Amino acid sequence: MNYGILISYIVAGFLMITILTITYNVTYSNQEVTTTLTKSNHTQAVKDIIMHDIPKIGYQKKSVLSTIFSKADSNEISFYSNIDDQGSVELVTWKYTNTPAPGSKNPNDRILERSVNGDVTEITNGVTHFKINYYDTYGSDTPLPTPISGSNYDDIVQIEVEMELQSEYELSYDINDPGDYVSTSWRKRFSPVNLRPNN
Amino acid sequence: MVGYDEVLYVMLSMVIVSTMALNANRVIQVNNTTMIEGQLEGEVIAYAQDIIEESRALAFDEETTYNKAGNSTVPVYIPSGFSNLGPDDTMSDPEGDRTQFDDFDDFNGLRETVEIRDVEYDISVEVEYVKTSDYSTYTPSSNKTTLKRFTVNIESDFLRKNTQGDQTQYNFSFIRSYYAD
Questions:
Q1: What is the pTM of this model?
Q2: What residues of B are in contact with residue A158 (Cβ under 8 Å)?
Q3: Whole-angstrom Cα distance, residue B48 to residue B60?
Q4: Cα of B44 to nearest chain A Cα, Å
Q5: Most C-beta atoms within 10 A of its C-beta, which of A25, A50, B5, B145?
Q6: Do B72 and A185 touch (CB under 8 A)?
């Protein structure tokens, strides 16, 4: 028996296993990074629209609207604003629905809706958490209880949006593992100009 | 009997594979760091914006806050009539924390630690009077001026220049003019 060849095969086997493991680890890591980047882009896209809308709450050219909110709940906000700065004032609504996002394998993935005067745009980018908090004092840690009644709309000075997006599919290192959804989150508290107490 | 040639080949191949493994681990580590840093930096930017927006919602100066009728009171002499920087904490007008601040520079000296998604961030705020001659470069002024610069500094144990290095300092500045309010 040629021990030299046998030992060579054993060593070669170990090396092959090492190489395959490294390749698998790098591939998995790249998959994780790519999914995270995709989710970050999706988050950025939704963030951009929210950051376009919320600061304009109650906006009207050269004046502030007398009626600002139509609804203020933890999963839905509806407000008036001349959002396009043209023509009349629009009713803008953001609502996190209970409807599962079509085509997603993530059970927590639900549709986020943005509507302007009833013209609905569905956001199905993997939004798994969307919550709106309202504050009656700048810098306060205690949000107002929701839904906020119409008589208390004038108390709102800050609006905080919490959002989490997850991948539509699971990433699993081991085929027997349950796997994880890649998630990205964002939280921002707005202090809209037209909600300032001295307007 | 195995010759020395074969032993050398085996050693060489092991060196090559080990180098590959080390490089691959480094790539994975860099990937993970980049992913996490990107997330945390997003939180840092959002929080800094929150504080700046909040300060902008308040009056420019303690002396220009709103009276009970909702009208802004303006000092006779501008800018010498403006207040000193920092909270103007008095018995009749307490300004011990953020919820009691009523003007832009009350945030000067604010230090707090906030926890966002299980990560702690150290926040500090500095407000100073600044002057400019060309409206592109601003320098701190020892006298009161009509311009105030608000700087938010944020650090976290999880955001470092490298693994063993110093914490990365994130600074966000905003300059507010009394006349542009």
A1: 0.86
A2: 54
A3: 19
A4: 10
A5: B145
A6: no
